[in-house]
Structures are given as C-alpha cells and as structure tokens.
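Customer ticket, subject: "Can you confirm the structure for Radial spoke head 1-like protein?"

Message body: Hello, I'm evaluating your service for our small team and ran a test protein. I'd like someone to confirm that this is what the system normally returns, since I don't have a reference to compare against.
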Amino acid sequence: MSSDEESIDDEGMPNLGEYEGDRNEAEERHGKGKAKLPNGDEYEGEYSHGKRHGEGIYKFQGGGKYIGSYVNGVKHGEGTFLYPDGSKYEGYWANDVKQGRGKYTYVNGDTYEGEWADNQRHGQGVYNYAATGSKYEGLWMQGKMEQAGELIHANHRYVGGFAQSQPSGKGKYIFDNGCQLRGNYELVEVLVEPDNEEEETFTVLEPKWRVEELSAID
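Agent reply: Thanks for trying us out. I re-ran your input and got the following:
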C-alpha cells in the first residue's frame, strides 16, 4: 500500500480516506494535515507531496500509536511507538524498522537499552530483568546474547562467552565475598520428559558449568 494506505472503491478508483489540511498546487497533501484512513487508522502531522514526511502522530485502529519522524511515508529518524499490549519503544528508526539506538520497555517491566538492527537487538546493549533485578551487559546478534557479555546478579556476576543467549565457553563467576570461579560452559544433552504421556521423550542441549579454578580476588 502507499503512504496513505490506499484502497480501491467500488468504481475502481483509489480511496485515500478523509483529509483536512494543506495541499500544494498539484492538490497533493503537502504541509500540515489530518487524515482518517480507510482502515480506520488516523494520522495528524506533516506531509510532503502526498506522503507523510516530518513530525507526526499515527494512531492505529487496533490501539497502537507512533509519535515521531517520517521520511517519504515511512518511520525514519527518532520516534516512540506505543504498542497495544502496553510495551513501548523509544529510539531510532530507518525505513519503518527499529535501527540504531533505542530503549524497549516490555509488558513485564523488563527493559532493553542499546543498539538495534532490522527490528532486533543487535550490537552493544543492556537488558534489565524486572522480576529479579539482574541484568545483562554485552553484545547481541539478531536478538540473541552472543560472544562476550556480563550477567550481573544481586551478589555475583558472570563474565564470559555467550551463544544463542546461553553462557558458552570460558568464563568466570565473581562473588561479592572476594572469591571467583574460573571455568568452562559445555553443551550437554538433557533428557526432557513431556507432560503428555502420549508424547515421546526428547533431548535438548543445555550449558553445563565445569569449574577449573577457585581463587580469591586480590
């Protein structure tokens, strides 16, 4: 669909919905205006040559809302998206997807603040777990904790490698009492018993911590 969510009426003509606002000499929406789209969505803000361009507010019929910048009809630049479930994203967009730095607040109170690419956590970022007070600081790739990171808890922290959001490879646990454990995470097969008796048991790979050294921090 076009920037104004075109539909086709009974006579085969484009239906752009209702519009009040500025137009240019070509009768395109240009300047500031307010539109109600055929699908029930509403937009109020700036236009350029018929497309949303500049600052505006887009209200979705389903309950969501975007407040921010548009370029050539798509979300681009800085903006805030309020989702129907109560979650929220505040940050940068590029061609209608989360791109660059931003903060996402989830329904359960968790937050992620850091880099995004193509709508996924990607790059350096911090994820805070509301229920436990723990947090992860480190690298993300396509929405998963990857490579080097630090998982911080109330009285200790883990520093080391990650793969697919699981600890992986060499790392160490550092405790507030002055001790640290160096070791290695290895993937081991774990047998899972299904809840339904008609289903078969299956195995999954889970990280297993193996201690290599216990020492005191100087």
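A couple of notes from the result: The chain is about 0% helix and 65% strand. The CA atoms of residues 32 and 46 lie 4 Å apart. Feel free to reply with more questions.
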